[in-house]
Amino acid sequence: DGGITQSPKYLFRKEGQNVTLSCEQNLNHDAMYWYRQDPGQGLRLIYYSQIVNDFQKGDIAEGYSVSREKKESFPLTVTSAQKNPTAFYLCASNSGAAGTKNEKLFFGSGTQLSVL
Amino acid sequence: AQRVTQPEKLLSVFKGAPVELKCNYSYSGSPELFWYVQYSRQRLQLLLRHISRESIKGFTADLNKGETSFHLKKPFAQEEDSAMYYCALSGRGYNKLIFGAGTRLAVHP
User: Distance (Å, rounded) from C-alpha A36 to C-alpha A113?
Assistant: First the structure.
């Protein structure tokens, strides 16, 4: 099952703890995205990156941080500042370059984060 | 502001009945609209996009700029169509999608 790999599948966070969600892709895609999925709210964009060493905030970036040191990797850190972290997190990628209209997104299988 | 609205959280139909999942959008320019689907235990995946004007698995969707709608339709629902459906919008110059809240389609035998 290649393409985009997210790990772990389930993750538990304690109070005051930072946790990092992994997202790796072998599709040679330039653009990568993190979405948060909550019941009844659909998918909301947290951060996205159109190229290595560059990323932009999405609609709900507060309490999250990302890095894009390698083309194939886009880890998401949920910091202690995120007061309501329990959600399903989806990573996605596409080959879309900056300024172009969006192409098909390829999604990972997701990580369920819960607070202990 | 860009927004995608899917007014129905759940749509329940019987096999063979017509299906219409509603999607309305708010965008000042010329958007690109998409439908994504998530079947049980599978990844979210693209179903169709308006620019392709295609029919996938019997589903079609027409962009109506006057009504700012992009409803998904299928004349005869099948049980395997049961899934979560998300309408999404991408604006010119953007390289990211804005998703609606999703509609769960349940097709009963």
Answer: 10
What does DSSP assign to residue A98?
T
CB B38 within 8 A of CB B44: yes
For residue range A59-77, list pLDDT tens digits in order.
Answer: 899 999 999 999 999 999 9
Q: Is there a contact between B9 and A40 if contact means CB atoms under 8 Å apart?
A: yes
In angstroms, rounded to a whole number, what is the distance separating the alpha carbons of residues A75 and A17?
Answer: 16
Q: Quick one: which H or E segment has residue A113?
A: strand A111-115
Strand-pair category, A19-25 with A64-66: unpaired
Question: Is the pLDDT at A109 greater than 90, yes or no?
Answer: yes
Measuring CA to CA, which residue among A11, A37, A36 is closest to residue A22? Answer: A11
**Hey, are the CB atoms on B90 and A108 less than 8 Å from each other?**
no
Report residue B95's pLDDT band, with 50, 70 and 90 as the boundaries.
low
Our CA angle for A83, A84, A88, nearest 5°, is 140
CA A77, distance to chain mean position in Å, is 9
Average pLDDT (B76-95) is 87
